[in-house]
Amino acid sequence: MSATELLQLFFDPELFERYGARMLDGLLVTAKLVAISFSLGLLLGLLLALGRLSRNSMLRGATGAYIYFFRGSPLLAQLFMLYYGLGSFRELWQDLGLWWFFRDAWYCSLLAFTLNTAAYQAEILRGSLQAVARGQHEAAAALGLSRRTTFFKVILPQSMLLAVGPLGNELILMVKASAIASLVTIYDLMGITKLAFSRTFDFQLYLWAALLYLLIVEVIRRLLRRIEMRLGRHLDT
Amino acid sequence: MLSTSSQTGALAPTPGLAQAVPRSRPAVEIQGMSKWYGAFQVLHDIDLSVQPGERIVLCGPSGSGKSTLIRCINRLEIAEQGRILVEGCDLSKVTTQAVKVRREIGMVFQHFNLFPHMSVLDNCSLAPTSVHGLSRKAAEERARHYLAKVGIENQADKYPSQLSGGQQQRVAIARALCMQPRIMLFDEPTSALDPEMVSEVLDVLVKLADSGMTMLCVTHEMGFARQVAQRVLFLDGGRIVEDSPPETFFNAPKSPRAQAFLTQILH
Ligand SMILES: Nc1ncnc2c1ncn2[C@@H]1O[C@H](COP(=O)(O)OP(=O)(O)OP(=O)(O)O)[C@@H](O)[C@H]1O
Ligand SMILES: [Mg+2]
């Protein structure tokens, strides 16, 4: 086998010309899907974490059940349940004026990913909020700080330093898990790759896709390191 | 806003006339206070009256309830029984009042409990801005004033982790003073420090005592107690078993427990 033949096996310029740009489009769809659902999941996750730490036992129970359910069942099942399951109550949604949402695979994917990652992020945030030393709460109370100020100015910033690593891992897991959106007709990176493969039966498309996922993950890793350094700047002497 | 020390100074008893403190409304009055941790009773029926400007040292063996006692005064712990009046206000009745009363009471902890993610200046100006509603500028001015009082104005822009233990504890004192409290509680403020840093913190405490601040201090620094305290309380098993002026306490302790305790820590 000559060198050009070997190269042809991993990088066929003709194939690249045909599908390269579309795969980059798919990459953008993946990035958008993950970015939006991760951010919404962070907000929801923070609320859930506060619910878990609340003094109200009803709230603790309800948020606990939510987290238990979404962490305990497969994301794929959750996505199908939303898109095919809830999507089958067409008349109900039409009456409620929500059919535009549940008919759309994009919205259903966003919702499923948001609900799922929120459960994981809630546990990360709860752990990191609890890990802030008790003395910090006491110092804030002794100064007469309100609960709100104590949370936003004293506890949350310190817990974020602890949370940022695990949250980054969750983000990376989500990038990879987002590939299942392709199963409900989303043309994300994996969706495009599958489509292209079904037409060419050339496995190198999957190799490219893998490398592109790797690229996102690498970018996230680097960003994360910067954020960690910034949040932890008070620890350097 | 920088005239606080002179204001509190006006309340101060004349040095040497410690016993002649006018019997005005007590700064802190504890009546029949008992506290339990689960089934374990930590404090037994505590009665204590602290006059404005009075300086009290609490000592006693480990586990005797010293920390719990002073933490009940600013409601970091809630006593199940009895009354605590701070400047006449009954803390055990009205929980919402606790926040207000806490503004009158500053506390310094054994392990400083500074906010590690904030600069020294921000540590000191957070509460004045968010609780007293001061502008950032005014709060920083106040912070610098008290940082100067504890002798670390030039560290204002550092983070706590960049300071020595003694410096951190002085920041913690300045942070508490920035709320311009009328009563200061100290829970073993020097026992987490390296020996060579103890005196810099004690010096600040002595200065604060001279300014007329009402102080309750848990400490085993007996030299400090002799120099500064007007009363020494000795706790044992959750009871105040001795309450005397330092001369009496050190030279002629009444209870055998206090005698044993003193021989132990003075060798
Ligand atoms: N949160 C808590 N839960 C249960 N028991 C506690 C708690 N805090 C303190 N105790 C117990 O209450 C008793 C008094 O504790 P406290 O901290 O007031 O003692 P102390 O006199 O300050 O001792 P030390 O000199 O060691 O600081 C101890 O027996 C301690 O084990
Ligand atoms: Mg203690």
Automatic annotation (TrEMBL), chain A:
Residues 23-224 form the ABC transmembrane type-1 domain. Pfam families: BPD_transp_1 (PF00528). GO terms for molecular function: transmembrane transporter activity. GO terms for biological process: amino acid transport. It is found in: Cell inner membrane; Cell membrane. One of its GO terms (cellular component) is ATP-binding cassette (ABC) transporter complex. Keywords: Amino-acid transport, Cell membrane, Membrane, Transmembrane, Transmembrane helix, Transport. The keyword 4Fe-4S does not apply. PROSITE patterns: ABC_TM1. The chain crosses the membrane at residues 33-53, 65-86, 98-120, 171-193, 205-224. It is a multi-pass membrane protein. It comes from the Bacteria. Belongs to the binding-protein-dependent transport system permease family. HisMQ subfamily. PANTHER family: L-CYSTINE TRANSPORT SYSTEM PERMEASE PROTEIN TCYL (PTHR30614:SF0), MEMBRANE COMPONENT OF AMINO ACID ABC TRANSPORTER (PTHR30614). This is ABC transporter permease. It comes from Pseudomonas taeanensis MS-3. The lineage of its organism: Bacteria, Pseudomonadati, Pseudomonadota, Gammaproteobacteria, Pseudomonadales.
